[in-house]
Amino acid sequence: MTRAVSFALLMSLAAGAAAQPKYADPELKPKDRAHWSFVPPKRPDVPAFRNPKLPIRNPIDAFVRAKLVEKGIAPSPAADKLTLLRRVTLDLTGLPPTPAQVDAFLKEDAVDAYEKVVERLLASPHFGERWATHWLDVVRFAETNGYEIDSERPHAWRYRDYVVNAFNSDMPYDQFVREQIAGDEIAGKDAKTKPELLIATGLHRCGPAHLVSGNLDSEVLRQEVLTEMVNGVGSTFLGLTFACTRCHDHKFDPLSAGDYYRLQAFFANAKYADVDFATQAERDARKKQADDLTAKTAPLKKQIADLDAPVRAKLGKEKREKLEPKYKEALDTPAEKRTAEQKTLAAQSNTLIKVSWDEVLAAMPPDDLAKRVKLREQLHALEAQLPPPTPAAWAIENTGSAKTFVLRRGETSQKTLEVQPGLPRVLVSGETPAPKTRRELADWLTKVDHPLTARVIVNRLWQHHFGRGIVNTPNDFGARGEKPTHPELLDWLACELVEKKWSLKHIHRLIVMSATYRQVATGDHGAKLDGDNKLLWKMSRRRLEAEAIRDSVLTVAGTLNRQVGGRSVKVPLEPEVYDLIFTEGEPDGLWPVTPDARQHTRRSVYLFNKRNVRHPMLEAFDQPDTLNTCAVRPVSTFAPQALILMNSPFVHSQAKAFAISLLNEGDTDKQLNALYRRAVGRLPNATDRRLATEFLKDQAATVRARLKAKLPVGIEASSLPSGADVAHARALADLCVVLFNTHEFVYIP
Description:
This protein has helices at residues 2-18, 30-33, 59-71, 81-93, 99-107, 113-123, 125-138, 157-168, 173-187, 195-200, 218-236, 257-265, 280-321, 325-332, 340-352, 357-363, 366-383, 438-445, 453-466, 487-499, 504-513, 546-557, 575-578, 616-620, 639-647, 649-662, 668-680, 686-708, 726-740, 743-746, and strands at residues 270-276, 392-398, 404-407, 415-419, 542-543, 747-748. By secondary structure, the protein is mainly alpha-helical.
């Protein structure tokens, strides 16, 4: 009896496990819709002020001052002209102002002098480069797939350029959103004649992609792709932690797993596609270049193969002789006559006798090995000259008719309810037509009364100007996110953006023109009541991002290549960084450095961004890893940052270039003037001058001692102006390194 009951129980459990679990969305309650970020913003009245001691330059100041008055905190005075110029120039372009720009602004007495500077900076092509960097953080842009292989994406740079150009042209933000969500659907049949619309959809390919060979479940891999798409849209445009609902209903926000998979259904048929839009002439030209180089590389490959062949054959023979008799017999038997067992043994033995590249090199005679190394170097030098692929859009396009199911625990093997494309229920009020396409999703996201889209983007802009957002969790406007410090101001900015035809430059202009933005970053009179400066009683001092530090070094050194756009650049890597590149083959030629050295000093946004191999300087200064969306970069302080800014080959090469240019300025006093003006925008004060002069004297003496001992000093006389003192030039370069390491250089004032 007991056995029968146990058997019945087991059968019942098995039947329950086999049945597909049910799913139903949890009921929405009125309080769910009442959360502040789910209610469409309404333009609030601007607080009225008549106190001449509280300057109000635009509505932003009125909202900020109202909070300060409420707390009994006085605002800070305005910053001086030099501080303000450095601040707004670094903020809007990521580059320091030149001495000529400083002189022009300080001499300008016109009432609208600052306004003219702001307009010049907003019109600069470097504005788009600066703000594209912030956007690319959020969408986790990189030019490789990540995971083990981390293969390259040869056309990804066009998406980066799309973003740069969009910001430079002040593309309306609603258009910017629509094109990225559904550019391919907007283009329709004319897609190949409108490549920019296809390139815009590269947004959906920015995240890591598990594209590897092997026995992997294709359905699981496809779900990973869809997860990246949905999570990207949820965080980037909605500012919500949608990723939490992939496995279960959200624990804190009124978002369900059903909401997640209905959003995913918009992308069910969206597949990765590199859409070729090259002309026939471009294809022919590339083929000719490639054929010409192939003709040059073929003889080199043959010579390498000829060196490898006898060594490989010898090693293979030795391995075969060591096999057990049954393996040898299987190999000696013709393939068509092998038994089932022999076929298995032959397959196994082929693995056992396979000769790897490292075994070949280890067994090769030294003279032949030296020849081979030179041949490989010549081969890689030629391969680096291979023309890039013909133009193609790194995009997505719709193919097939896949179904979408709510997945229990996010597992493809546990499908529950089939769902159609749909919008998050908490963000939809009343009866609306059921959307079916990504284009309709994009139209919904850019509705003028959408509760989140405008709020999220103006908050991101505010964050990068003031160091923290009005909502200090830019990717989480939900229940667990921080509440806005100035909710009325956030709504006013969101409504202003929409009313001004979604112009982001208009919002930038309002922010940097405000009295709030122009305050000094010093003082502590409000610290007791508002230690974190959430109410903006002063300007917060901020460290430059990694890319801006590198770009500033290039700018003051006079080496920055200001070319805008184009293919990404591979700069030389230190050996220990190069060794991080994964390969199953020979570890040479894995990072073909861009042949034109002039490209190596491009802005950091144009450096090739490889997920698994980071540039040491950028990584040290908190560049995101691009594996996940990064709304707010951490600001760490640790020893390797100082070591890199003091000792890295990049810093020293730029310091030497800087010093060599300073030698043409005249005597030491004039050189110091030029050094400080270019590095920090001002003349050295008496203390600066005394310390710098003492440093140059002591350092030059040390260098002379090394020269006398015939030791290298890192700078050649042939690279200097005629008659220049090598010891002084080396000391001046070291002083440049010192300036690169000052707070005044790496912080926005």
